[in-house]
Structure formats: C-alpha cells, structure tokens
Amino acid sequence: MSARVFRSPDEAKGQFGPSALAIGNFDGVHLGHRTLLSETIAYASDSGLIPAVLTFDPHPTAVVAPDRTPKAICSLDERLELLAKCGVDHIMVLPFTADLSRLSPGEFVWQILVSLLDTRAVFVGNNFRFGNKKAGNCETLRQMGKENGFVCRFLQPVTYRGEVISSSAIREHVASGRVGKAGRLLGRCFSIRGPVVSGHGVGSKQTVPTLNLRPDPAQVLPRGVYVTETRDLDTGTRWDSITNSGIRPTFGGDEVTVETFLLSPFDGQTPENISVSFRRFLRPERQFPDPQALRSQIMRDVGRAQAYWRRTLYFHSRPFRYTESR
To answer: Phi first, then psi: what are they for 288, rounded to 5°?
Structure first.
C-alpha cells in the first residue's frame, strides 16, 4: 500500500484534510502504534475522513535535549513504509525545529492541527504531551478540541504478557540482545538495513566470507552473534544466515560492524542493499586467540543456526490436527 507523504507545511497546506489524525513519533511502528492506527483508520472510514498520521523528524529530543536523544529503532524511510502498510492515506513528516518547540499548546493546535492539517479527530496515547515544555496534556487537548471542532480519542497502554509495549522498552531489549522480546513487541523481527560495503578482507582469507552492512550510527544495535534472516532489498531473495554485530575483537577492531554469513550461496552478483532480521541470540562476541579458533566457533554457530531453521521449517509445515478433549 502507498500513502502520500508531505514533508513541509507548504506541501500540506490545503491538501491534507479533512483528517482523522494519529499523532506520535511512531519509532518502530510497534503493536501499540498499530492499535492506535487501526482505531484512527476505522473512525476515518465511518466518518468520511482521510486516515492520516502526524510524525516528526528529527526526534523532538534532538532539538530540546540533544544529550538525551534515543537511538532509533528504524530509519525514517522504513517508518514511512511501515506506516503506509498499516493503511493510512496521508503522512505529515513535520520538521521539528526550535521554533516549533516554542509553540504553546494553543498555538500548536491552531497552527498545526486546525489550520494546516484540517483535523477533525485526533488519536493519541493517554500520556500524550505537547507544546512548549510539554505544557499540554490530554485534558488540554480535549478542551481545545471542543473549542476548535475536533474530537479526541486517547488510547490506553497496549501490553503483551504484562509488559507495556513502547519504543523505549523495545530499544532496551535490542541493546541488551533480547531480540526475541523486541520482536514480540514490534510484531515482527527487529531488523536493520543498508548498503553492502567492503570489509577488511580478513573473513574471506582467514575465517569465512561475509556480507558487511554499514549500520546507521543513529540506530540502536544488538551486540553479539545471532541467527538472522538476510534479504536482498533489490530482488527480494532471502537467505538463512548468522550475523555478528560488534567490534571484531579478535582482529583489534574498535568500530561496530555488522557481518552476515549466509548459510546458502547466492547466485550472480553480490547484493548491493540488504536487510538483516534478528531471530535469536546465539552468544556474546568475544576475542579468540587466533583466526582459526574463531573460524571453528563460527562453524559451531552455523550448526546451531541450521538446527534453528530446521525446527522452524518443521513447525511451520506441520498440519494442524484438532483433537477433541474428553
């Protein structure tokens, strides 16, 4: 599905609404976000409105508190792609600037929601804050909605197995290597994407050949060795794989790299752009006494990854049998 993306107020003026508008950063577009978006889309359908999203770039803390800016779960381009797949028609990527941060709650509502985006319904989480120094809250928004002709809906926290689904929780899980938990909150595997770059030539000569992905320094990364799934973003071809995300201590590295070893060969040219989806933690990264010891460990990692994929294939291929309990 596609959505029309507006990247400046000039683009959106007179073109955006009338809208049912979900507001948020939507980093990761996790299960909580998707619940909010589903309610927005349903209301828009019932009310003859355009289902829409207001998000921000950069993250507001990059302007108001740069030292506390969180690492991103996904890039802006991936965020827009995921939002479009949820079924919204219009997306406003509002540049977050110092001037925008200084708007009072009333100015934000009138200038952005009413005048710019022709908002008729607003959907936000129940902890929503807005305006200069976060002076506005949900009750503020509700009152301003009555004064300006839009309704407000406030979503309660969405939980999974007792844990509140949030971008901050997902970041913490990823950074700690708990990619399975992160994936359950996202509703999909945590992944990174980017161009394939030349490595140091060590793997192909001394250990095993790998595809090296240049990670976005602004994105949160897991550390260690993982069972992964690698996709060629240009052709859609996928491979089972194992991936090391770390600094290559055996070879004296000091920069984080993402090195992926495919469990089956690829035909033709080396992929130019790939995504790597993290499925399961295997082990922490550690320094080995020599490349041969590292290679031996990689082969053991390969064996564990192949066993993982065999189990996955087995359970997915088993027919469902209903047995009536007595």
So the answer is: -110, 155
Do 20 and 123 meet the contact criterion of CB atoms below 8 Å apart?
yes
- Could you tell me which CATH number the domain at 189-316 has? 2.40.30.30
CA distances from 20 to 2, 6, 94, 126, 242 (A): 17, 16, 17, 17, 43
pLDDT band at 251 (very low <50, low <70, confident <90, very high): low
Q: Are 245 and 223 in contact (CB under 8 A)?
A: yes
- The pLDDT of residue 208 is 52
pTM of the predicted protein model? 0.89
Mean pLDDT of 54-66: 95
Domain residue limits, the chain: 4-160, 189-316
- pLDDT number for residue 269: 83
The answer to whether the beta carbons of residues 34 and 79 sit under 8 Å apart is: no
Cα dihedral 69→70→74→79 (10° resolution):
-60
Fold exhibited by the domain 4-160: Rossmann fold (3.40.50)
